[in-house]
Specification:
453 residues, alpha/beta, ten-stranded mixed β-sheet, six-stranded mixed β-sheet, 9 helices, disordered C terminus
Length: 453
């Protein structure tokens, strides 16, 4: 059990790292330091470095429905409330949707339509007229649209939430060391002054051997940061320090794009529900400060697998490709706009990027101690594209781990399985399509540029 006055290092100042620091402070831990590679928070290395993220409680598994409902109460508190917008949530499938998309929509609806908190707040929508009666700004044909509206959902402004919680934690004594040199952990330190070897098979810490306590990290500037407990909350980058994490938590990315709107267009779309069309993509009301309208295509994402079978984000400070999304993703988003807001469908996309996250085959989180480290090294991973919404609650689950000295929930325990080299992305019930490799995307971009020359 971690003492309340012992030094704790948290690697990563993203949503889960900040939430962990927040709940540790609330639980009277007094010596907490966050190391963050970026120069400031919100960090461009966090998946939450973004305008907004969906906050909803539709899950096929009621376990996560209940957790999300609890987190949504947290979004309504004084600390998190300024960043939460309960615009409601429209979920739909088009008349051309594959059966898998329709099945998932029906399961999502079933998960909440019988729930006592949701049942009075759900409205089923069938056909273009229903959707337009509910959201008058939809002006497209909405071809074959079927779905529902859930009033108890919306989105959170993710980058602003990171900044707000960072400032709050700093005001309460949490220490921050930031920057590419000072804040980037490059090696885990152990009692014998060496790190576990990162073998060619990516095994990392070995189970079944003598425990070696992690005593902190060395950062890129050569400085040693010592701690009784080290918590790795590096998201998609976690396996750079703990290679065996990459055996079951895969670095994967999805496309993000925006349309720049005018002031009047932003006002016109103010208050629209967060809209998720299961076979195309999703979007949010425009951001009033930047007037950016964010869209994301739905699919299985992209990996960056090396010769050892590990997928990690590129090592560049700004991972390639920049200001680019794959052609097939652009086509999905264009079709999404033609169906909903055709006046926007041919507008240029701006601030295009790939958002990296840590993905697991069962979409379960990992909140546990790393085997073979005498419970001195914990890892928070596997957000699987549904982790940010839990930010108000997540840290209390880490505090539970530290105080119970074990992960009692089997679903959140460290996995011994090795899934490297296996493409399980299409088996996830809420994703459609086949995963591709980042190198293929870069090749596609190069071909596109050459074709235009």
């Amino acid at each position: 059990m971690t003492r309340k006055d012992s030094p704790v290092l948290i690697l990563g100042g993203g949503a889960w790292g900040l939430s962990t620091a927040l709940h540790m402070v609330n639980s009277s831990y007094t010596d907490i330091t966050i190391l963050e590679r970026a120069e400031q928070i919100p960090s461009r290395y966090s998946a939450a470095w973004d305008l907004n993220k969906i906050v909803r409680a539709e899950y096929e598994d009621p376990f996560y429905t209940d957790l999300a409902l609890d987190a949504m109460e947290g979004w309504k508190t004084r600390l998190f409330g300024p960043y939460y917008h309960q615009t409601g949530y429209v979920v739909a499938a088009t008349g051309r949707a594959p059966q898998k998309a329709i099945d998932h929509l029906e399961k999502a609806l079933s998960s909440i339509s019988s729930h006592p908190k949701f049942a009075p707040e759900i409205r089923q929508l069938d056909g273009a007229k229903d959707f337009k009666d509910h959201t008058w700004q939809y002006t497209g044909p909405l071809t074959g649209f079927k779905g529902y509206f859930n009033r108890i959902a919306g989105y959170a402004h993710s980058a602003d939430a990171l900044k707000g919680v960072w400032e709050h934690c700093a005001s309460r004594g949490v220490k921050f060391v930031m920057g590419e040199s000072a804040g980037r952990a490059v090696e885990l330190l152990y009692e014998n002054k060496t790190a576990f070897p990162s073998s060619s098979t990516g095994t990392g810490p070995q189970t079944g051997t003598t425990n070696r306590r992690c005593i902190g990290v060395r950062t890129a500037d050569g400085k040693r940061h010592l701690a009784d407990t080290t918590i790795c909350a590096l998201g998609a980058y976690g396996a750079t320090l703990i290679p065996s994490l990459g055996n079951f938590a895969v670095a994967r990315c999805w496309s993000v794009a925006h349309v720049q709107l005018t002031e009047s267009e932003t006002d016109y779309l103010r208050g629209i529900p967060t809209t998720n069309v299961r076979d195309l993509g999703f979007f949010f009301e425009p951001d009033p400060k930047t007037r950016l309208f964010k869209l994301c295509p739905l699919g299985t994402g992209y990996t960056n697998t090396d010769s050892n079978g590990l997928s990690l984000p590129p090592g560049d400070r700004l991972p390639p490709p920049q200001d680019y999304i794959p052609f097939e993703d652009e086509q999905k988003l264009r079709q999404l706009l033609r169906e909903t807001f055709p006046w926007m469908a041919e507008r240029p996309f701006v601030d295009q990027k790939l958002c990296w996250f840590a993905d697991t085959a069962d979409s379960e989180y990992c909140i546990d101690f790393v085997p073979g480290t005498d419970k001195s090294l914990a890892v928070l991973s596997g957000d699987s594209g549904h982790g940010f919404k839990m930010m108000p609650s997540f840290g209390k689950w880490v505090v539970e781990l530290l105080e119970r000295n074990e992960q009692k929930r089997p679903r959140w325990q460290w996995r011994s399985t090795d899934l490297r080299g296996k493409d399980w992305s299409a088996s996830v019930s809420w994703r459609i399509g086949q995963s591709r490799e980042l190198r293929d995307l870069i090749g596609d971009k190069d071909k596109m540029i050459k074709a235009r020359l």
